[in-house]
Specification:
- This protein is an all-alpha fold.
- 67% of the residues lie in helices and 3% in strands.
- Strands 1-2 form a two-stranded antiparallel sheet. The chain has a two-stranded antiparallel sheet with strand order 3-4.
- Helix 3 runs antiparallel to helix 4 and helix 3 packs parallel to helix 5 (165-183).
- It is elongated and about 80 Å long.
- The termini are far apart.
Length: 371
């Protein structure tokens, strides 16, 4: 609602005050009752700057996601040695995160500079929430698969049975199929799609009190967050323990060999163990970005709506979107092979160190060819 209605004013702290009869969502397009819960309408309007900041943040996250996930897809698909079965899950995560921001960041970013509230209609709200359900589920489950694969490789060691590339692709296809079927529930009467607190984005409606809707939200909460979180913590706990044991063995070996510096004995640590050292970062990032949104959903399930203001409900949703931009940094940039490929193919980004020997060899071949 901008410009504000007659009677609105700014106080000395720059807080915007509205007349008592003005309500949140008064400027919504007509015909959105199907996706608008009355709970959100009872509040006074939020400061327009909040929605403006959400729109700006969405656009920034969209560009970050395109750059980060686009680079991951380009590098992993272009570099043959990186097209391993393990990296199939990383590629899938990047693809899912990119689709999430293209389908969410773009419409919200456009919307916010044209109208203050959702302008795309009921059907597009449902499609928006449907695509968010698919990509959110795929991203979470991809983290589980990455954790499982790395746990299998690092903890199992040389005796571990590696996942073949064909099996990895089949697992990814099964994951997309499961996520699509799960997100379709509201289209068939199980669950509901609706506008979220700030009335600028859509998701599963966790406000409705009927059993059909609450059972769907509970199912989604358990199978798409709680169970995957337990698996992720379990896998990375095993990885962390393996790293601790490995380093203890290196210290023992260094003492027997009379090596003065433990770092000297650690210098040949393999790539998998280096990657494993970011395990706790992965877990903390995942929990930190998804837990606030889960808490909001739980508040909706318990019926404690007094604390569920539009701002409280809207901010965690934005936090979840940041995951799609941070995932490439955590899962790909920490990969030594990826960093080397980045230095070779995209040196302008300044990430990684180029293989000097390979560069010299290519230079020699070029000179030889020219002579």
């Amino acid at each position: 609602m901008w410009p504000p209605p007659a009677g609105a004013y700014l106080d000395e702290y720059f807080n915007l005050h509205y007349p008592a009869n003005v309500r949140h969502g008064d400027s919504l397009e007509p015909g959105l009752d199907e996706i608008l819960d009355p709970h959100w309408v009872q509040y006074p309007p939020q400061n327009p700057i909040i929605n403006l900041l959400v729109g700006v943040a969405m656009i920034l996250l969209l560009f970050m996601s395109i750059l980060g996930n686009g680079c991951v897809l380009y590098i992993f698909l272009k570099t043959e040695k990186l097209r391993t079965s393990s990296n199939v899950f990383v590629i899938n995560l990047a693809l899912s995160d990119l689709i999430m921001m293209l389908t969410h960041g773009l419409p919200v970013g456009i919307n916010i500079f044209i109208k203050r509230y959702w302008m795309w209609g009921v059907q597009n709200c449902k499609i928006f929430a449907f695509l968010g359900g698919i990509t959110g589920t795929v991203s979470i489950m991809s983290m589980v698969l990455i954790g499982y694969d790395r746990c299998n490789v690092i903890v199992g060691g040389l005796t571990a049975k590696r996942i073949s590339k064909k099996k990895a692709v089949m697992m990814v296809l099964a994951l997309w199929s499961y996520a699509t079927v799960s997100a379709m529930g509201p289209f068939f009467g199980w669950g509901h799609y609706g506008l979220e607190g700030l009335l600028i984005t859509c998701s599963y409606d966790y406000i409705k009190k009927d059993f059909v809707n609450q059972s769907f939200i509970l199912y989604t909460l358990i199978t798409h967050f709680l169970i995957p979180m337990c698996f992720v913590i379990y896998f990375y706990a095993k990885i962390t323990r393996a790293v601790v044991v490995h380093e203890a063995e290196l210290r023992s070996q260094a003492k027997k060999m009379g090596v003065d510096s433990i770092k000297q004995a650690n210098s040949n640590e393999n790539a998998e163990f280096k990657i494993a050292k970011v395990a706790m970062t992965n877990v903390l990032l995942w929990i930190g970005t998804w837990c606030p949104y889960t808490i909001v959903v739980l508040i909706g399930l318990t019926g404690n709506y007094a604390t569920l203001t539009p701002l409280v409900a809207g901010m965690p949703s934005l936090l979840v979107k940041t995951t799609s931009s941070l995932n490439p940094l955590v899962f790909a940039v920490a990969h030594p092979g990826y960093r080397e490929a980045m230095a070779e193919n995209l040196p302008c980004l300044g990430i990684g160190v180029r293989d000097v020997k390979k560069g010299l060899a290519n230079g020699s071949q070029t000179v030889a060819a020219s002579t």
